[in-house]
Amino acid sequence: MTPRRALLYHPGEAHVYARLVKAPRHAISLDVCSTPADASARIAEAEILYAWKFPSHLLAKARRLCWIQAMGAGVESFLIPELPSRVIITRATGMFGAWMAEYTLGWCAWVTQRMEAFREAQRQRVWRALDPAPLHGRTLAIVGLGEIGKTIARAGRALGMRVIGVSRRGGKVRGVAAVYRPSAMARALGQADFVAVVLPLTEETRGLIGEAELRAMKASAWLINIGRGPILDEMALIRALAERRIAGAILDVFDTEPLPPDHPLWTLPNAVITPHIAGPSVPSEIAPVFNDNLRRYLRGRRLRFVVDRRRGY
Ligand code: GLV
Fold first, then answer.
1. Same domain flag for 209 and 227
2. For the whole model, what pTM was predicted?
C-alpha cells in the first residue's frame, strides 16, 4: 500500500504536533511544515492537511486534497471558493469551552472584583476600600450557544448568574433562561450586564453586532468578544467605548490580527486587549481529535466534527 501524503502545518509548533501523530508508518507519509514557502512546495501532493493558520491562498494548489483537519474551532480561512467541494473539513471541538469559560468568567470577575483598582492602590501603598460588585444575580448574555457557549453558560450559572442567549434558531437550551433569535439581538443585549460573543465567522454573523445592537446595551454593561473580530462593527464599538455608552469591552479577536500598533483600541481606557488566546489550541488536546479522525479516514469511516461548508461551521 502506498502511504497517503499528509501535510502538517503550524507556524510555531509543527514538530510538537508531529510527535503526537499516531499512525502506522506505512499508512501515511507526513510532511511537517512551518513556513508558507515550505507548505507551498508540498501542498500539491497532500491528500490530508492538518493545520493551524494555513495560508488560504495555497489551497488553490491543493490538487489532491481530500480532507482538512483544522487545529482550531473556527474554519473560515478554509472556506474559500477555490477549495474543491470534495474536500471534507473537520474542526477541533470539545476542548475550547472550558478555556473560554475561564476566560469569560475570569474577566467578568476582573470587572466586579475591581482587580485593577486594588492592584493600583497596592502600588501606591493606599488602603482603598472599594466595594466589589456581585456576579451572582447579574445577567450574562451569550451570543452563540454551541458547545463553547453552553460551557460558558454552565460556568455563569455556577456563579449564580442569570444566563440568557442568542442562537440561530432560538431553540430552548437547558439552564439558559431565555434564548433569542438573531433578529431579537437588541432585546437580549438590553437585559445583559455582560455580553459574551462566541459565534463563528460566517456570512450570517459578519457585522451582526453594530451600532443599533451596541446602543441597546446598558451603559453599565461589558462586552466580551471571543468569537471573531468582524462579528462586531469595530468602528461602532470604538464610538460606543469612547462615548461611554457601554462600560467597556474585553476583546480577544479583531478585524486585523495582530492588532496594528496605531490602532485606536490600544489606548481606550475601557478596552482590554488580549492577543487571541481565549481558546488556545494545545497540541495534546488537539492530537486525539486528529488521531481518531485519521484512524477513521484510513478505514474509510465517517469523520467526526465535519464542517457544513454552506453553514460555515
Ligand atoms: C481560535 O480562534 C480557533 O478558531 O480555534
1. yes
2. 0.96
